[in-house]
Amino acid sequence: MEEFDVEKDTTDKYTLRGRVFSQIREGILSGKYKSGDELKESTIGQELGVSRTPVREALRQLELEGLVKIIPNKGAYVNGLSSKDLKDIYSIRSYLEGLCARWACANITEEQIEDLEEIIYLSDFHAQKMHHEQLLELDNKFHDVLYEASNSKMLKHLLKDFHHYVQRVRKTTLSAMERAIESNQEHKAILEALKEKNCDKAEELAHQHLLNTMANIEKQGLENLIQE
């Protein structure tokens, strides 16, 4: 993990705690810290070049998110994401992404439509070349543009958090070229509905897009994907 500039960051302990929190959470979601691993304040502090205090505060925040369990007089342990957590995230996301598409339908700009068209075009190109990393990056960009187009900072914040939580699983599922191609076709359909200003259709297609993704994840095996 990258060391922080402590002198700079300690000018605002909340900023420092936020960065420590993000680093530990990323370690959990990326699989660096496995379910059941003990998160030792001193060890993590040394890794990040910070004192134990911001680490302790970050662990408490992670406990509120359900990613860490703190046992009094014992320590902090990784909870990670269970298969039920993953199902819950995609179920919730399916409705929020639908709402996002509906709001984007009313607020999307011509520039954002052009951005989505370019993303879809590039996704087709990279799918033919079997460039998995580029496809994942473009998939992220498609959703980011939609989040911006919703014109709601609250909805954008929620969706980006959920998106981040399943990043590792998404990377695995989109490496299956068949699903990557299907996903891009679904993106095309959502874009067409947006261009037609058919908000009902855009919402339904975005909702179904996430349900299709969840069905593909279940097909590949939830437990295996989480434990990889």
From TrEMBL:
Gene Ontology molecular function, alphabetical: DNA binding; DNA-binding transcription factor activity
Coiled coil: none
InterPro entries (UniProt xref): GntR_C, TF_FadR/GntR_C, Tscrpt_reg_HTH_GntR, WH-like_DNA-bd_sf, WH_DNA-bd_sf
Keyword Transcription regulation: yes
The keyword Metal-binding appears for this protein: no
Domain of life, source organism: Bacteria
Occurrences of domain HTH gntR-type (ranges): 14-81
Listed Pfam families: FCD (PF07729), GntR (PF00392)
Keywords: DNA-binding, Transcription, Transcription regulation
Name of the protein described by the UniProt record: DNA-binding transcriptional regulator, GntR family
Organism: Anaeromicropila populeti
